[in-house]
Amino acid sequence: xxxxxxxxxxxxxxxxxxxxxxxxxxxxxxxxxxxxxxxxxxxxxxxxxxxxxxxxxxxxxxxxxxxxxxxxxxxxxxxxxxxxxxxxxxxxxxxxxxxxxxxxxxxxxxxxxxxxxxxxxxxxxxxxxxxxxxxxxxxxxxxxxxxxxxxxxxxxxxxxxxxxxxxxxxxxxxxxxxxxxxxxxxxxxxxxxxxxxxxxxxxxxxxxxxxxxxxxxxxxxxxxxxxxxxxxxxxxxxxxxxxxxxxxxxxxxxxxxxxxxxxxxxxxxxxxxxxxxxxxxxxxxxxxxxxxxxxxxxxxxxxxxxxxxxxxxxxxxxxxxxxxxxxxxxxxxxxxxxxxxxxxxxxxxxxxxxxxxxxxxxxxxxxxxxxxxxxxxxxxxxxxxxxxxxxxxxxxxxxxxxxxxxxxxxxxxxxxxxxxxxxxxxxxxxxxxxxxxxxxxxxxxxxxxxxxxxxxxxxxxxxxxxxxxxxxxxxxxxxxxxxxxxxxxxxxxxxxxxxxxxxxxxxxxxxxxxxxxxxxxxxxxxxxxxxxxxxxxxxxxxxxxxxxxxxxxxxxxxxxxxxxxxxxxxxxxxxxxxxxxxxxxxxxxxxxxxxxxxxxxxxxxxxxxxxxxxxxxxxxxxxxxxxxxxxxxxxxxxxxxxxxxxxxxxxxxxxxxxxxxxxxxxxxxxxxxxxxxxxxxxxxxxxxxxxxx
Length: 693
Ligand SMILES: Nc1nc2c(c(=O)[nH]1)N[C@H]1C(S)=C(S)[C@@H](COP(=O)(O)OP(=O)(O)OC[C@H]3O[C@@H](n4cnc5c(=O)[nH]c(N)nc54)[C@H](O)[C@@H]3O)O[C@H]1N2
Ligand SMILES: Nc1nc2c(c(=O)[nH]1)N[C@H]1C(S)=C(S)[C@@H](COP(=O)(O)OP(=O)(O)OC[C@H]3O[C@@H](n4cnc5c(=O)[nH]c(N)nc54)[C@H](O)[C@@H]3O)O[C@H]1N2
Ligand code: SF4
Ligand SMILES: [Mo]
Known about the structure:
This protein is of the alpha/beta class. Among the domains are: 148-333 and 536-552, Dimethylsulfoxide Reductase, domain 2, CATH 3.40.228.10; 572-691, Barwin-like endoglucanases (Beta Barrel), CATH 2.40.40. 31% of the residues lie in helices and 19% in strands. It has 26 helices and 29 strands. The strands form 8 sheets. A 7-stranded mixed beta sheet has the order 5-4-19-18-17-6-7. It has a 6-stranded mixed beta sheet with strand order 25-27-26-29-24-28. Helix 9 packs parallel to helix 14 (307-320). 57% of the residues are buried. The model has no long low-confidence stretch (mean pLDDT 96). The structure holds ligand MGD (2 copies), iron/sulfur cluster and molybdenum atom. Residues 113-115, 122, 141, 144-145, 299, 303, 392-396, 399, 419-422, 424, 436, 438-439, 474, 584-585, 592-595, 657-658, 664-665, 668, 682 line the site of one ligand MGD. Molybdenum atom is lined by residues 114, 141, 145, 298-299.
């Protein structure tokens, strides 16, 4: 699978895609003598249309990074020692088999990070290995990221829908800052605000650059459900909803109408800190400018303490205003059918008993366990011991909540292996590390479906360069490991090409077609009449404004404002000690989570993390702009510079995640979870700040 077969001096331009984040932008990759020498945005790509974010423009630096892992290594007396792939695989196989014999297959767990769940080959092969080996305990970032949105959509609509904002008359950025996390939509919104009369609303505790272009609702973190119910109160009481859609396609409207009477804007203003006049104004704007498209943060509501109900509420607003299944609203694009490599495991994974709503929707299990109870189970060995972890595509020692507990759990395990292109904080704690190819070095399937856009589009990701040293594609690692464990029959594929062809089999698209169309192809048309063509796949065949399924599980059938488990109102004593609200993980355009800190191009524009604090909080705590401060919660204390700005709400502190030098997850709390889904509270934790010296 040699990638770089261009002859000396000649420069080839290869169409491919970038998956340094979930967007999957198209790239024109310039390859000369086996090296990536330049990257530009692919003009033909339907999402990024020729542009890239700074990470994409600097892919050459990523491709040539000195810091790459080149060989398998094992830890001996605290030192890393180079070993062969054979030794590494034999060691891992023997360890896993021994643990299986002694404690059962469920004692082996696997973690899929964001680079694994968002990469179809990688996700498929871990799923397959899990099933072939027989452990239910595959955990992932899916219990912290967008999966809760999928569940909310399935519960409410029976299908997943994507935002389709390009022709919207009104866009609501609900906990989303596309300047940092989805530049292509930031560009589109700016252009349409300036030239097309687009009405823009931003719902965010921070006045982002986008918020300055429209109506800004500076919501208290964790109170979005109350805000949405206040808006529905206005929309329904003023008769601004879409009667025809509601009558024909929804159930539970009467209950909803009664329910929202308890949320008059004046009362909601007290809960959310958003003035009642702004709530009314926003509600009218959203209901009367059609089409209207809410663009939710990919994980901000998921981290708000009422993850599932907040996402469900957005589904309800989008439906009752008549903006579902229409251009410019939310659309139900057909998903491409790919080979399902999963092998069912009967036993339920970690967290399934505690969070059945996360684990199963309409009888169909989510292919991952809930990661939040994992560390507790490792430490307590209850209900049974977990003894090993294999980590792929993630750096959970930095990115999972409450680092200290997560690391204690890692340290308690008998065996940890990590496969990654780079040495990470997690890999440092492992017994064996394995060098992985990056996406630039292997073939793959690029999709632009899901949280970022509903584009029914596929592109073949080409291997652009050869991997350094002995780096392997992940599928090869799982295949070779399985073969050594007597599970080879489940892994008959031998090349990248075979893997991609196999995945494509049920899709109606062939690899040859993708090769003939290097810029990618549309496998279907966007669909704006799913309600007639396919119907809603809920038990009632309607949009379930009222969810009997949630009620049966003991949860609110209609979203109801409940204070997060930690807040100034639910834990007033803690709030006396920690009077501010901490929002973690606002994205930075230079980095993907904990990645790319080694790139000097990125460090030039973002050399260090900052805690954004309001001038009032700065004054109260005797802090000036640029000073080193401690940010503290009941779980820990970290240091970073203060950036004093009027843009954050007066009682809010906003810090980025993914920095080893000031790790936000030293402050987060594995016990503070959404009781329905188990999602962690990463926005709106109680905190305090003080001068560092
Ligand atoms: N550059 C970059 N882009 C990325 C990533 C990355 O690491 N770097 N990661 C990717 C991944 S995996 C994900 S999940 C997405 C995340 O994407 P998003 O969740 O959309 O994250 P942001 O765009 O940073 O927007 C989050 C906004 O929510 C606001 N916010 C915080 N708390 C609350 C709250 O309680 N209510 C409301 N309404 N707003 C709140 C924050 O102030 C912030 O402005 O980004 C993806 N894109
Ligand atoms: N406090 C706080 N914590 C958060 C968040 C927050 O907002 N606040 N956001 C959460 C969210 S939404 C997410 S999605 C998670 C992300 O959590 P992670 O997925 O753990 O974060 P990354 O740092 O992106 O880790 C991805 C790793 O995959 C490696 N990698 C890249 N390509 C490949 C490959 O092809 N194969 C293999 N094997 N490895 C590869 C990278 O080098 C990197 O080390 O963080 C979560 N953590
Ligand atoms: S937004 Fe940037 S990092 Fe993400 S896929 Fe596009 S170019 Fe790559
Ligand atoms: Mo995420």
